């Protein structure tokens, strides 16, 4: 058994990391539009009030790679690779500039009409994320972000608007990107500005509940608009291993895995899992639910499980051992002595992808969709004008081998969309030098450069992978 004949090969980007044109055609500001780059960005993500009150020299999202104006040539390049599916997101602030309006911005809707038509011209399926870390800034400043239950209604109006508009163009939908990121980067995940004197756990879990209800209501409406829609949840995944075979470490890893799956349990099974009663008690969380919430969650579960996978993680119950945790990305982890790491400290564990896939399918028994995976690395143009990104090819080859093995394990997999298929602004650092794409974009960390698109060596490699349906690796 190999990759299914209808396997969806493709790639993924996000509106806020690619489009630029941050105020074009009546677009409003999203929370990403106030974030700078480099160390300032990392600080701003954890202290967003400072970002609101600071004027920085450079904002990466304002221009990004200008996908807004370059999408015809970019989609043509993706089609040249043979993409069967393209994942991107819709910018909420393009459709409703403030987020709480009644009437949508027609110019924003028209842009996505044109973008989606360009993809369909090449027989490319669309996988669209409704909210990918870009809640309108107005909703953050005037309503407190997702801590406020009113955002359920605003999100639902936005979701119904685009579900109706694109009902004959888009089949696959994701309601929220990496919904568990609410616990790790709450400004990204929920537009939350946490105050020192409030209970952070209470605010984060309550905001997450609002998103879960909103997700279910969007699915409910979507199935009325077009019964052929397929809806997925989206998890920032990565199996958490025990550092030692000591039972206390094994238990700690098990508990942390439970916590990362909690939101997906709700979206896939329709109920909060059994362990949340103890979890909320330990964290002093008192979840407020309105009448009907439980029924809404139970009756509107997802069709498939989508997730991002970049690395596994490692934990211990020993406080002294935990002092050695690293922070290569949004998740802290101990260094695994059996793994190499990327330039940004992300530990490379292809087998961990197969382990994660087995855990997800064992838990949910729903088809999987790998919607983010890839290697962020520095790329350089050689004297002959080529880009030899062999490390990226090796990384992706090793992960595709493990996906194939997971399929042989008996897991149904819809498709694979590599992250940042064309170079985009890094979400975590705002840098351009951290590149994931098959296509190089001539932009630097300060927004300089020609914007020229150049095919990397991985472009031709992935082209052959798709052409051979995964036989060429």
TrEMBL record:
<dbReference type="InterPro" id="IPR017853">
    <property type="entry name" value="GH"/>
</dbReference>
<feature type="active site" description="Nucleophile">
    <location>
        <position position="372"/>
    </location>
</feature>
<dbReference type="GO" id="GO:0008706">
    <property type="term" value="F:6-phospho-beta-glucosidase activity"/>
</dbReference>
<comment type="similarity">
    <text>Belongs to the glycosyl hydrolase 1 family.</text>
</comment>
<protein>
    <submittedName>
        <fullName>6-phospho-beta-glucosidase</fullName>
        <ecNumber>3.2.1.86</ecNumber>
    </submittedName>
</protein>
<dbReference type="Pfam" id="PF00232">
    <property type="entry name" value="Glyco_hydro_1"/>
</dbReference>
<dbReference type="InterPro" id="IPR018120">
    <property type="entry name" value="Glyco_hydro_1_AS"/>
</dbReference>
<keyword id="KW-0378">Hydrolase</keyword>
<keyword id="KW-0326">Glycosidase</keyword>
<dbReference type="InterPro" id="IPR001360">
    <property type="entry name" value="Glyco_hydro_1"/>
</dbReference>
<dbReference type="InterPro" id="IPR033132">
    <property type="entry name" value="GH_1_N_CS"/>
</dbReference>
